[in-house]
UniProtKB/TrEMBL annotation:
InterPro entries reported in the protein's UniProt record: DinB-like, DinB/YfiT-like
Name used for this protein in its record: DinB family protein
Superkingdom classification of source: Bacteria
Source species of the chain: Cohnella nanjingensis
Occurrences of domain DinB-like (ranges): 26-146
């Protein structure tokens, strides 16, 4: 399997196709705005909604980098700032999940049109293939956090069957 085919496969696994871990889309399925804003009492943990905003920021940033060559942070923005949510109602929760889906699908379409040599192009300083691999690992990491929060809420099964 080529590097390009491997990236395509794992891009799909991390978002909407089950492999050895639940995909992000499944981890978010059925989550209400109230559940998205829940945080364990006394814990310094991000909410599901804040984590989704963070994921959207980096997917949109990479999409922008591929389209314009500019991957810089907006002035004064820190990584912590990317966890800020823009609301607590169902409408804003639906909107951020739609942005996540759109960014993921747009990047997947671009990846689907790439060649092996495209993966070596720097955008602006990082190889495109490395960007994709980093986002795959990033999504998997934060999907695990989301699943853990859902387990603490009681909104994710303690055990899942894969049959």
């Amino acid at each position: 399997m080529s590097r390009l085919e491997l990236l395509k496969q794992y891009w799909d696994f991390t978002y909407d196709q089950e492999d050895w871990f639940p995909p992000l889309k499944d981890a978010l399925n059925g989550v209400t705005a109230a559940q998205a804003d829940w945080r364990p009492e006394g814990e310094a943990a991000n909410t599901i909604r804040a984590t989704v905003h963070h994921l959207v920021f980096y997917k949109e940033r990479f999409l922008q980098a591929l389209q314009t060559g500019d991957a810089g942070y907006p002035p004064g923005l820190t990584n912590d700032d990317t966890f800020r949510a823009d609301g607590t109602d169902e409408a804003s929760w639906t909107a951020v999940r739609a942005r996540l889906e759109a960014a993921h699908r747009s990047l997947r379409a671009l990846l689907g049109a790439m060649t092996e040599s495209d993966l070596e192009k720097r955008v602006p300083k990082t190889e495109t293939g490395q960007w994709f691999m980093s986002l795959i690992a990033h999504d998997a990491y934060h999907t695990g956090e989301i699943v853990q929060i859902r387990k603490l809420q009681g909104s994710w099964p303690a055990r899942r069957s894969f049959e």
